[in-house]
């Protein structure tokens, strides 16, 4: 089942869960469905912001409470974790606001911040502002580009060659990602 189908079936609850678990694709799909009138735009924005905020608060609490647990110690060994901690120490407010917009740092960052001395109140306030901005931004992208997306999808329905092209590009992307992952594991 696709992200769009899940959001269409479960509405704003799927946007909430998608924002907490997956991220931009689910929230943008929520904006697309709001454009189609299947869910409300303000509801999708609120669900996206709350899902992101609560998930990141949970990861922060996990990092704070279990900083010496073997799972967190294992995560600390990752280069992304080290980059996140270095950025938090240099610019805590800026990094807390920006991490959800930085690819590759979204999941590990709240845990990393939780292991630092950043106060809970500061983290919660900046995290809330960032989650609200992120939720509104990505839901709006889906909403505003909904018409263009529908036009492209309409073209794809009628032209099998485009489907082969899209499938080939996706397969190439998956193969490239697998190759990069394999290279990273070897080194």
TrEMBL record:
The keyword Transmembrane helix applies. The chain crosses the membrane at residues 41-63, 123-146, 162-182. InterPro entries: DedA_domain, VTT_dom. Coiled coil: none annotated. Residues 24-143 form the VTT domain. Keywords: Membrane, Transmembrane, Transmembrane helix. It holds the Pfam family VTT_dom. The keyword Transmembrane applies. This is DedA family protein.
């Amino acid at each position: 089942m696709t992200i769009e189908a899940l959001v269409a079936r479960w509405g704003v609850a799927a946007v909430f869960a998608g924002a907490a678990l997956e991220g931009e694709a689910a929230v943008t799909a929520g904006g697309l469905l709001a454009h189609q009138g299947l869910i409300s735009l303000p509801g999708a924005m609120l669900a996206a912001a709350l899902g992101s905020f609560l998930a990141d608060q949970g990861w922060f609490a996990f990092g704070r409470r279990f900083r010496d647990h073997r799972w967190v110690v294992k995560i600390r060994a990752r280069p992304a974790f080290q980059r996140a901690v270095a950025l938090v120490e240099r610019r805590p407010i800026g990094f807390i606001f920006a991490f959800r917009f930085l690819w590759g740092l979204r999941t590990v960052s709240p845990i990393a911040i939780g292991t630092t001395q950043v106060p809970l109140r500061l983290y919660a306030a900046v995290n809330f502002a960032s989650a609200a901005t992120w939720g509104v931004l990505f839901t709006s992208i889906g909403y505003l580009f909904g018409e263009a997306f529908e036009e492209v999808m309409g073209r794809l329905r009628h032209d099998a060659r485009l489907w082969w092209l899209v499938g080939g590009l996706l397969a190439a992307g998956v193969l490239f990602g697998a190759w990069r992952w394999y290279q990273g594991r070897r080194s």
